[in-house]
Known about the structure:
Family: Belongs to the enoyl-CoA hydratase/isomerase family.
Organism: Mycolicibacterium tusciae
Largest sheet: 6 strands, mixed
CATH superfamily of the largest domain: 2-enoyl-CoA Hydratase, Chain A, domain 1
Strand content: 15-25%
GO molecular function: catalytic activity
Protein name: Enoyl-CoA hydratase
Order of helices and strands: EEHEHHHEEHEEHEHEHHHH
Number of domains: 2
CATH topology of the largest domain: 2-enoyl-CoA Hydratase, Chain A, domain 1
Amino acid sequence: MTDDGAVTTSRVDDVLHVTLERPSRRNSLSPPMVNAFVDALTHAATDDSLRVVHIRGGGTDFCAGVDWISANTGERPRTGDLVRRVPHGAHRVIELVHSIQLPVVCSVRGWAAGLGCNLALAADFTVASTDAVFWEPFLERGFSPDSGSTWLLPRLVGLARAKSMLLLGEKVSGADAAEWGLIHRCTDESELDDVAAELLARLASGPTVAIGLAKQAIHYGLNATLPQTMNQELFNLELSCRTKDFKEGLAAFREKRTPEFGGR
């Protein structure tokens, strides 16, 4: 009997919790799990009632990447199989986390390796426990990095540290990852759930449309000039100024009170 694992979703108010469930394999993603993950994020991207997405691993680890053994069994595939297949699987997961106009939070315990590491890096906020280990093991396995690692790492921690992780395969602790700016925060394992819950509540109570547009502008600006970025900001400002949350924000400012955003 094979253990293909599962990607489960549960909703608490405006927060979608996505859990990677394959603890016997450190939550390494089987092909069915990758497909389910893509489906869950795709549905979240088009659900106007959601305000934040939370990704976590079941058990003691976050995600040990793609299970290459289960993904490459059976008859030898045609030449070009990876080029055809990966963009619709592992790469699509990273693209969705990066581009979805909702804040994405990852809670990391234990191993975050390969795709699991890049998933944590692509999230808007990653909180990790002190026992977390971030690792890019691609070259140690004999193949070149993928799932956005060569784009994400240099932008987050600079070339020297990116090369240490990607070319030398150096593992990074949760504490070092936070110190480097690789992730949002590191905390004791016993406090991780509370820290994540507090962050999720804060994001879920924010102006959801404006947060999504701000996220889009930040990512756009990474590959644009200052005038191009400011032009994009203007279009985003035009949209956010038409929301109910914008009116609530102005009213709260006038009335000297804390705004109560509804995510609309």
